[in-house]
Structure formats: structure tokens, C-alpha cells
């Protein structure tokens, strides 16, 4: 399985990462080896396996519980004002 | 001739008390970030817990739209990064929606048509982004994160904007009467996107585009027209339609291509590992079937059949669930559905208009109003007094008896009092009296009004009329 | 007080031999005294612990019957959210992140009167098998500080081994409790998936993660497991109705059938490790258990299936780290895409990036069917295979890792080799089964060897019984790294 530059760039986009050149080379190399092994899974047949019945989970009752204090919600935000999180302008 | 082929994707907020995956309130209009907890703000380590009411509402809607209910539906993650999405994925249902293959009938242009519904699935809403003009930054409010939504997807069965509007009306009525969604378009609790392509009559389906930001029926109509025209122009000039999402700008009456998240992303859907499949048993379905609320169409039928309410009136009354509820309560308490209908279609509608009260905000004391209906019916107050008191109850929730007493509105059927008033009026208004005797019919009305005024509006009109007529013709009005 | 077990310590506290504050202070002193020698603790929450100690003492004095572990100090792996105590997952991305809520497991520890002393070092975001990938440095194995402690719960295992803490909570996604326990000669349990609430556990792979206890012996671990296990309204995947109650004890393993996968004993398995594990099996045979060899099916597919599923889930779970709501934000970033990309690229280490990239790949359209879907299929096959096996055996006994602790830096550049080191542990997570890792000897370099007992879902009781009996009849678990004397009882030394 060839992990070329185009694929790495695409995966960087999906993953919201910028890899350094070094990282790109290393990761591409590692991925090739790892994916080779993973490709062996195709040796396993594809017959549908009967799904074991799940235990019926209890759903949550529709009763209001107190929300958190706003200060706590915002506490760990790197940038905020009194009321909201701040991000750079979102392009429409 | 190119004709449009339209499909709808409708997002409706479920009117549950709590959010889809946590116990935060779904109340509208709260201060930013005050209805938020670690779960709906996507903090590290949190897990979703499905709200039981969401499952019930979704199944209820599915049953009302004649869908098949999936006994074993799974949730999926739709992965993309955006500031209004705290977990950077939305929990939705891609592969196994909870309801499939439904239908809803519409009547458009005199013909009935069945619109088929491909699926209904459950998903969560995202937060609100606010542009801060001072700093140029974007501010994020997570109050709406995790509001439960159903997405209703129709097949491309629509051919005109009119059909779309009709469908949406019918759907809104069902959602509202079934207590599934409050359908407050101005609060964004229901939103419709259209998918549109064009084809030659009987020809193949073309490439479709998706149109968002349609906030009213008129906007939908304009967008359908505009997009049909835009696609026609492209095809006729030899071009190809790009599959894309467009944003409708009703001010500019144009649409613009949205080049961001919706187009570019590979959502990498996979089954949500933090949630067990939603198992819907036959028992649950039957339980919901047996408690389906009465819909608008059923109410109208019942009003017309059982209570002989006119069709037009029935439509006004059922135009909003709130109004129908008030009507039914009034009917029960006053014992007179027809009087209750009159009151609603007459005075109440008028008062709502005057005071700019929207149907969803209509709040009246039915005990008091039904009492007034009875009073008027039994002749204790006349029509005028009735209207006045109704208005006072509507606006200020006054106590009817107090108000009537205070303003002397009890119908005065005392013949002597009426005679006295008539004599006084005739003596004060000899010119008018003469005019009448000389043949001016109009003067009678004037005199009636004057007597009524003298009696402070509480006179029994019949008795006034009788007395005035007698006294005028007998010439007893002269002193 | 450092030589007795946690259960004995709690008894001693109740008998007023020590006060809770005394014990807490003593442990804090010991930890500080080690001066980060093994790099086990990321955060020491001394003040809070002392306040807790006072409160717990009051509860004990008032006659409240708290729990069998009341007053015992405990620490938590730094991927478990602790209210008002910094929780970093050993990542730059969460440096300075202080949770505003407590993980359910942390809550239950406190309700049980345990004293939280601090947060333990680990592989970054639990991704790794050696506790070398964390941003706060490598955890060193007390038995040989030039060797790894194992991972990803290396800090927890090494901390217990070094006597810094009697009990610790770790997490196990593909072996992250069991392997460091085997490298450090301590005992650890990976509970059945769904036995312990994951609410507050900062997710790596949602369908595989479980929180579990690490301690000096099976009894202590069982007691801690009782405290944290059981249904939780905040976690819909936690299905164990009631917390475990390990009161029943057996003295014999008669009637217990133990299966041993013979194909695990291949050329990749170190001889010393293999021998120690076989000896452990023989010990259990002496107490009445029946041993039988079998071939573990699908052995060649387990690691691949595991990494596909784990990386896929991880890539999704970690996309919430965007530099805006919490965590690290790059100073260089101007635009929104830059905030995302720079913050994530600067905040995450290489192993995390590698797994995110891999995860994005196996989920991307075009590759989903060939990789992710196939992995799910393999997973079902493995689950079914174990189901069949547990129709025949009560326990499956196997090595935990192919080797003992290797030298620091030896494997870090060879991720594939690292991944293959998980060969004996990952299938247990894929099948959602419980397993306990126990010390069973040493190799030629005097490094600890561990073995694991695997059971059917929710059969922790069976495993604990077997473990107890093994530890009653052997003394491997009593060895301390800093004493010359080596306990043995059978085995090859």
C-alpha cells in the first residue's frame, strides 16, 4: 500500500494537523508497514455474523438537572469573555 | 420545458424538557452558556446518555407519518471540526435511521398527492456562533448544543413550491398537535432545506443542489423559482450543474455557493461506540400508538360532526394547537361549543390582533370566559357588555363579576328605569325626536344609542327599542 | 506501614494504630523523598489529600462503616478526570487543564474514604506500551531505572512497585494495565468492558477503554474494584448492575479448567518469560486446576484489528482538542484554521499524531470498507472464538508480554515492533473480557515476569479466586525491588 504525499496531505487535512517534513516521512513509512499487516484482515471471510442481542439499556428520563455555572464551563478556555468562548473569525 | 424536481430535508427541534444526551434544559432564550454542562460542551471524558422522550417522540412522528419503525437503530458519528460543534463530531444516524418509508398526503391545486418520506432520523443540534463586530472574532454559545432534532427527509416528489408549502403546513400541524415540536420558525425550531434539480418532463433526474437558510414559505417559493431558473440557464447554455450546497439570501433574492465545511469534508461516519443501539420493542410502539394525540384533521372532523361548527371556523380554531385547546376547554366549561366558537373566531382573534399576541403565546382564563359566555347566553349582560368584559379579561385577567359591577354592565331589564331613561333622552334631544317623527329613520338609531349611554351601556336593547318606539309614537316624550 | 497491604493498612487505621493523617503524611513524604526518581507522579495533591484525610478520620471516628479501604492513599492515572486537580494525559495539549467535574471512579474512591494523593505519569493520551511517549518524560522501572516501566499506565504500576502508593487506578485499552504490572512485578486487573464507569476517563478508544486497579496483590485490587465498579447514570455502556462483591473465597481450584494457548509460546516469546508462565500454570494445577492446551484462533489478526479500531476511535475522540474550548492554544495562530492546526500539531506528540493519521485513514471514504469494516468483522470473530473457548474453560492462562521490560529508547523508533508487543493482551480488549495480571517470576536479568488469567465476561470472581490461591501458594508478588532477598517458591531461580 503506497502512502504518497497526496494521501498524507489529505489525511493531514482530515486530522487538522500540520506535520513537519520529518514527521511526514516517519509517519508515511510507519503507516506503510502497519497497513501491510492490516491488509491481511481481508483474508478473513465476510460472512455476516449474527449479532448477539444487546441488553436493553435504560434510557435517561426527561427530567431537567441543573446546568453548570457558566464560569466553570469557561474556566479552561484559552480565550473567553464573561459569557462566551472566543475564536478567530469564522469564514462563512 | 425544464421542470424542477424537489426534495425536502426538514430539521425539527423536539420539544423535550432536556437535551438529547444530558439533563440540561432546552429552554429558549437563556443567557449565553448558562444551559451547559460538561457533556454538551464536549469536555474531555464525557459520555452521551440518550433522553427517553427523544425516542418516544421520534417513534410517534414515524407512526403519524405512516413509517416503518426500525426496532434496532444505531447511532453514528459524523466527524468534522467547526466552532459550534464541541465534540468535533455530531452524533446522528446514517446507516440505520429510526423510521423509514413513510408518506403524507397533500392537496395542491385541487388534487391530492402523496409525498413519500424516505427516512426520519435522530441527531443533535450544534451551538450558536455570534460575530463580534468590535473585535472581528467569533463568539460561541453552547446553549443549543445537544438540542434534540429529528431530520425528516422526503423523496424528490415535489414539483412546485406550492406543494412544498402545503406539505410543510401539514407537517407543522402534525408536529404541533402531536406535541413533538412547537414549530416556532422564528426561534429556529423548524428549518427546511430544499434539494432541487431540473429535468425534461419524463426525463432523467439531473444533478441536484441543496439550498439552506430558507426562513419562510415565501422565501422557499422565491428560492425554488430562482434555483430552477439558474439551473435552466446553465443547462441551456451547455454547462453542467455542480453538486453543491447554496445559501439563500432573501434580502438579495439570490443564492450563493457555500464553499466551506459542508462541501469539503469526508465525514468518516462510523458507529458511535459510546451508545448502545436504540432498541424499540413492539410494546413500546403499541404504547405510543395507543396514546397518539388527536391531530388537527381529526379535531376539525369532530368539531364539524359533533358540534356542527362551520368548516371555516373549525379551520381558524385549529390553525394552532393552543387555540384549539382554549376552544375545547371553553366548550367544556360553558357547555356551548357554538358560542365558544363564536367567541374565539370573533373577539379572541380580534384581541390577539390588537395586542399582537401570537397563537403560541395565547393565555386566557377559560373559567372566566366560560362564565361570561353563560352570562350573555342567559341574558344577564348584553352583547356590548360581553365584549367589553371579555376584552378586560383577555388583557388584564379581571374578575368578571367585579368588572361588571364596577362598570354597571348588568343588563338593565327594568322597564321603569328604561322608561325614565327614554323620557330623559327625548327631552334632552327634542330635535332628534322631532326628526324621527318627521320620518328620519336614522334618528332612531341615534336615540337608541343615547338611551343606552344613559343606561351606561347596560340596557336591554329589546326593551329600549320597545319603550322608545312606544313613547315616541305616543308622544309621551314631550314634557 | 509501607510493607503491609492496603486492606491491612485500612484495618490498622480502624484499629487506631495509625491515623489517616499520619498515613497520608508518611506517603507524601516518601513520594517527595524519591524526588521523582522514577518519574511516576505528574501531580501530587498534598494539601487536598491532607484535608481529605481529616474528613475521613472524622467519618471513621464517628463510627461510620465506610469501606474496607477507608483511609488508604490512592493515586489515579492522569487520564482520569479529577475535580480541581490538573489532569494532563501526559500531553502538552492538556497542560494546565483542570477538570470542573470528577470522574465517577474518582467520586467512588472518595466516597469509600480513600485519600487521593496525586496523578500518575503515562504514555500520552494512553497511546503507547512503555510510558515513553508522554510529554512529561519517561517513567522508569524501579527494578532497573534504565528500563521502561511499561505502558501506558507505567506511572501507576511503577508507583506501586516503588512503594510510593499502595493502590492506583490505571486504564487498559490494549494491555495498558496488565503489561506495566508484569514489567514492574505488581498485580493489576482489566475489568470486563462495562463493569466500571468510563465517565471522566479521557477517551482513547471508547469501545476498548476500561479503568482498573493496580496494587500489591489480588486482594487489594479486588477491594478497589469493588469500590469503583457498578452501574452509573452518566455512562450508558456501563452495564454491571451492582458493584462486584468479592466476599466468597475458595481454597481450592479443583474443578477449574484452565486453557493455555500453545501457539502463544512461539519464537517471539522470550524463553524465561515462557518458562515462568508455565510454572505459574503448574502452581495452579497443584491446587486442583486442570490444565489443557489449545490453539488460540485468529492470533495473527488481533493486533491489526485492534489498532484499526483503536486508532479510528482515537482520531475521532481527539478531534475535540482544538485550542478553543480548553487546552493548549498556539501563540502563532492567527486565523481559525491556524488555531486548529497549529495548536494540535504543537500540542500532540508524534505517537498521538501517528495514531490520529492512521485512524483518519481507516475511516476515510474509499478505505472504510477495506480496513475499518474488516476490523469490526475480525472483532466479532474473536469475540465468538472466546465465547466458544469459555464454554470449555473457566480460565485462559497466558503470558502478558513477549518480553520483560526492555531498555528505555530501545523500541521507540519501531512502532510496529511496539504494537506487536501487545499480541497477548489486545484480543482481551477486543472481546471485552476481564483479565488479571500477576507476578510469576524473574528473567535472567532479574526483571519481573507476569502472567495473566483471562475470564468470560463478568467472571471476575473466578479470576480473583484463582489469583488469591496462586498468591497464597507463591510469593513472587512479595518481592521488592530494593531488597536483596528474592522470594520465590518454585520457579527457575
Please explain how this structure is put together:
The complex is a heterotrimer of chains A (92), B (479) and C (493). Chain A is mainly α and 92 residues long. Helix content of chain A is 38%, strand content 3%. Chain A has a domain at 5-42. Chain A contains 3 helices and 1 strand; from the N terminus they run αααβ. In chain A, 28% of the residues are buried. Chain B has 3 domains: 2-282, no CATH class; 296-406, no CATH class; 415-474, Arc Repressor Mutant, subunit A (Orthogonal Bundle), CATH 1.10.10. In chain B, strands 2-6-7-10-1-11-12-13-14 form a 9-stranded mixed sheet. In chain B, helix 2 (161-177) runs antiparallel to helix 3 (217-236) and helix 8 crosses helix 9. In chain B, 43% of the residues are buried. In chain C, strands 1-3-2-6-8-7-12-13-11-9-10 form an 11-stranded mixed sheet, sandwiched between helices. In chain C, a hairpin with a 2-residue loop joins strand 4 and strand 5 (144-148). In chain C, helix 5 packs parallel to helix 6 (178-184) and helix 9 packs across helix 12. The two termini of chain C are 29 Å apart. The model of chain C is unreliable at 489-493 (pLDDT under 50). Classes of the chains: A mainly alpha (92), B alpha+beta (479), C alpha/beta (493). The interface between A and B is large, with 29 and 46 residues. Strand 1 of chain A pairs antiparallel with strand 9 of chain B.
Sheet with the most strands of chain C?
A: 11 strands, mixed
CATH architecture designation of chain C? Alpha-Beta Complex
* Quaternary structure of the protein: heterotrimer
The level-1 CATH class of chain C: Alpha Beta
> In the residues of chain C, how many domains can be counted?
1
Radius of gyration of chain C: 21 Å
How confident is the prediction overall: mean pLDDT of chain C?
A: 95
Give the end-to-end Cα distance of chain C, rounded to a whole number of Å. Answer: 29 Å
Sketch the major β-sheet of chain A: none
> Percent of residues of chain A in helical segments?
25-40%
For the secondary structure, the number of strands of chain C is: 13
Amino acid at each position: 500500500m503506497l502512502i504518497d504525499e497526496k494521501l498524507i496531505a489529505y489525511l493531514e487535512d482530515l486530522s487538522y494537523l500540520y506535520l513537519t517534513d520529518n514527521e511526514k516521512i516517519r509517519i508515511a513509512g510507519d503507516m506503510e508497514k502497519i497497513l501491510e499487516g492490516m491488509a491481511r484482515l481481508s483474508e478473513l471471510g465476510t460472512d455476516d455474523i449474527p449479532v448477539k442481542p444487546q441488553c436493553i439499556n435504560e434510557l435517561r428520563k426527561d427530567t431537567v438537572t441543573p446546568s453548570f455555572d457558566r464560569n466553570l464551563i469557561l474556566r479552561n478556555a484559552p480565550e473567553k469573555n464573561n459569557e462566551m468562548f472566543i475564536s478567530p473569525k469564522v469564514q462563512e | 420545458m425544464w421542470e424542477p424536481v424537489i426534495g425536502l430535508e426538514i430539521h425539527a427541534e423536539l420539544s423535550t424538557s432536556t437535551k438529547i444526551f444530558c439533563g440540561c434544559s432546552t429552554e429558549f432564550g437563556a443567557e449565553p452558556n448558562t444551559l451547559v454542562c460538561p457533556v454538551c460542551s464536549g469536555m474531555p471524558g464525557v459520555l452521551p446518555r440518550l433522553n427517553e422522550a427523544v425516542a418516544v417522540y421520534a417513534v410517534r412522528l414515524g407512526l403519524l407519518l405512516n413509517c416503518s419503525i426500525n426496532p434496532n437503530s444505531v447511532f453514528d458519528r459524523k466527524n468534522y471540526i467547526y466552532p459550534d460543534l464541541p465534540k468535533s463530531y455530531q452524533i446522528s444516524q446514517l446507516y440505520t435511521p429510526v423510521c423509514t418509508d413513510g408518506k403524507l398526503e397533500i392537496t395542491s391545486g385541487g388534487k391530492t398527492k402523496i409525498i413519500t418520506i424516505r427516512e426520519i432520523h435522530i441527531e443533535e443540534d450544534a451551538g450558536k456562533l455570534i460575530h463580534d463586530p468590535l473585535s472581528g472574532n467569533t463568539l460561541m454559545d453552547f446553549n443549543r448544543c445537544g438540542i434534540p432534532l429529528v431530520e425528516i427527509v422526503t423523496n424528490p416528489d415535489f414539483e412546485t413550491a406550492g406543494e412544498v408549502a402545503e406539505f410543510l403546513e401539514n407537517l407543522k400541524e402534525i408536529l404541533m398537535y402531536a406535541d413533538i415540536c412547537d414549530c416556532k420558525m422564528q426561534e429556529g425550531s423548524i428549518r427546511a432545506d430544499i434539494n432541487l434539480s431540473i429535468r425534461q418532463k419524463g426525463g432523467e433526474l439531473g444533478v441536484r443542489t441543496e439550498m439552506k437558510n430558507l426562513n419562510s414559505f415565501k422565501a422557499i417559493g422565491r428560492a425554488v423559482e430562482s434555483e430552477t431558473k439558474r439551473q435552466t440557464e446553465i443547462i441551456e447554455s451547455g454547462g453542467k450543474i455542480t453538486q453543491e450546497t447554496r445559501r439563500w439570501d432573501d434580502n438579495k433574492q439570490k443564492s450563493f455557493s457555500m464553499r466551506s465545511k459542508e462541501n469539503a469534508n469526508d465525514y468518516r461516519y462510523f458507529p458511535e461506540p459510546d451508545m448502545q443501539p436504540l432498541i424499540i420493542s413492539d410494546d413500546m410502539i403499541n404504547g405510543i400508538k395507543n396514546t397518539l394525540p388527536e391531530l388537527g384533521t381529526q379535531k376539525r372532523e369532530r368539531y364539524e360532526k359533533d358540534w356542527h361548527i362551520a368548516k371555516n371556523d373549525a379551520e381558524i380554531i385549529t390553525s394552532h394547537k393552543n387555540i384549539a385547546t382554549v376552544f375545547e376547554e371553553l366548550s367544556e366549561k360553558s357547555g356551548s361549543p357554538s358560542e365558544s366558537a363564536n367567541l374565539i373566531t370573533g373577539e379572541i382573534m380580534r384581541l390577539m390582533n390588537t395586542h399582537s399576541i401570537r397563537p403560541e403565546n395565547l393565555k386566557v382564563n377559560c373559567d372566566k370566559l366560560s362564565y361570561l359566555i353563560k352570562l350573555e347566553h342567559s341574558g344577564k349582560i348584553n352583547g356590548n357588555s360581553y365584549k367589553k368584559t371579555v376584552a378586560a379579561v383577555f388583557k388584564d385577567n379581571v374578575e368578571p363579576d367585579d368588572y361588571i359591577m364596577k362598570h354597571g354592565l348588568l343588563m338593565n331589564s327594568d322597564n321603569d328605569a328604561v322608561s325614565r331613561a327614554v323620557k330623559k333622552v327625548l327631552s334632552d334631544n327634542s330635535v332628534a325626536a322631532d326628526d324621527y317623527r318627521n320620518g328620519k329613520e336614522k334618528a332612531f338609531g341615534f336615540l337608541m344609542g343615547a338611551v343606552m349611554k344613559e343606561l351606561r351601556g347596560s340596557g336591554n336593547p329589546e326593551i329600549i327599542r320597545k319603550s322608545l318606539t312606544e313613547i315616541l309614537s305616543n308622544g309621551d316624550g314631550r314634557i | 506501614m509501607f510493607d503491609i497491604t492496603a486492606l491491612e493498612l485500612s484495618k490498622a487505621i480502624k484499629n487506631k494504630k495509625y491515623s489517616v493523617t499520619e498515613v497520608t503524611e508518611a506517603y507524601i513524604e516518601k513520594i517527595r523523598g524519591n524526588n521523582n526518581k522514577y518519574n511516576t507522579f505528574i501531580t501530587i495533591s498534598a494539601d487536598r489529600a491532607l484535608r481529605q484525610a481529616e474528613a475521613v478520620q472524622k467519618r471513621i471516628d464517628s463510627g461510620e462503616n465506610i469501606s474496607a479501604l477507608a483511609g488508604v492513599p490512592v493515586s489515579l492515572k492522569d487520564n482520569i478526570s479529577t475535580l480541581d486537580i490538573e489532569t494532563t494525559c501526559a500531553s502538552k495539549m492538556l497542560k494546565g487543564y483542570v477538570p470542573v467535574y470528577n470522574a465517577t471512579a474518582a467520586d467512588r474512591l472518595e466516597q469509600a474514604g480513600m485519600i487521593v494523593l496525586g496523578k500518575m505519569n503515562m504514555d500520552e493520551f494512553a497511546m503507547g506500551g512503555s510510558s515513553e511517549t508522554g510529554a512529561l518524560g519517561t517513567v522508569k522501572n524501579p527494578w532497573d531505572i534504565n528500563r521502561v516501566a511499561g505502558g501506558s499506565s507505567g506511572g501507576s504500576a511503577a508507583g506501586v512497585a516503588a512503594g510510593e502508593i499502595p493502590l492506583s487506578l490505571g486504564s487498559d485499552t490494549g494491555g495498558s494495565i496488565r503489561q506495566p504490572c508484569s514489567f514492574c512485578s505488581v498485580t493489576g486487573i482489566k475489568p470486563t468492558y462495562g463493569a466500571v464507569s468510563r465517565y471522566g476517563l479521557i477517551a482513547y478508544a471508547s469501545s476498548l477503554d476500561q479503568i482498573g486497579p493496580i496494587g500489591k496483590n489480588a486482594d487489594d485490587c479486588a477491594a478497589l474494584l469493588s469500590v469503583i465498579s457498578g452501574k452509573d447514570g452518566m455512562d450508558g455502556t456501563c452495564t454491571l448492575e451492582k458493584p462486584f462483591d468479592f466476599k466468597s473465597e475458595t481454597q481450592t481450584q479443583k474443578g477449574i479448567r484452565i486453557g493455555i494457548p500453545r501457539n502463544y509460546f512461539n519464537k517471539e516469546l522470550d524463553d524465561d518469560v515462557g518458562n515462568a508462565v508455565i510454572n505459574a500454570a503448574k502452581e495452579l494445577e497443584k491446587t486442583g486446576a486442570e490444565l489443557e492446551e489449545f490453539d488460540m484462533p485468529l492470533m495473527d489478526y488481533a493486533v491489526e484489528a485492534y489498532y484499526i479500531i483503536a486508532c479510528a476511535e482515537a482520531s475521532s475522540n481527539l478531534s475535540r482538542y482544538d485550542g478553543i474550548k480548553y487546552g493548549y492554544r498556539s501563540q502563532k495562530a492567527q486565523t481559525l484554521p491556524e488555531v486548529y492546526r497549529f495548536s494540535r500539531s504543537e500540542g500532540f506528540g508524534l505517537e498521538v499524531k501517528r495514531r490520529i493519521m492512521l485512524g483518519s485513514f481507516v475511516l476515510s471514504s474509499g478505505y472504510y470498507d477495506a480496513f475499518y469494516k474488516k476490523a469490526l468483522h475480525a472483532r466479532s470473530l474473536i469475540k465468538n472464538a472466546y465465547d466458544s473457548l469459555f464454554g470449555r474453560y473457566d480460565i485462559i492462562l497466558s503470558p502478558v508480554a513477549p518480553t520483560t521490560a526492555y531498555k528505555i529508547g530501545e523500541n521507540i523508533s519501531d512502532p510496529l515492533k511496539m504494537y506487536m508487543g501487545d499480541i497477548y493482551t489486545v484480543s482481551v480488549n477486543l472481546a471485552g473480557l476481564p483479565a488479571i495480571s500477576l507476578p510469576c517470576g524473574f528473567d535472567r536479568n532479574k526483571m519481573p515476569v507476569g502472567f495473566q488469567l483471562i475470564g468470560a465476561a463478568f467472571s471476575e470472581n473466578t479470576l480473583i479466586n484463582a489469583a488469591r490461591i496462586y498468591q497464597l501458594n507463591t510469593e513472587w508478588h512479595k518481592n521488592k525491588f530494593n531488597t536483596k532477598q528474592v522470594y520465590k517458591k518454585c520457579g527457575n531461580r
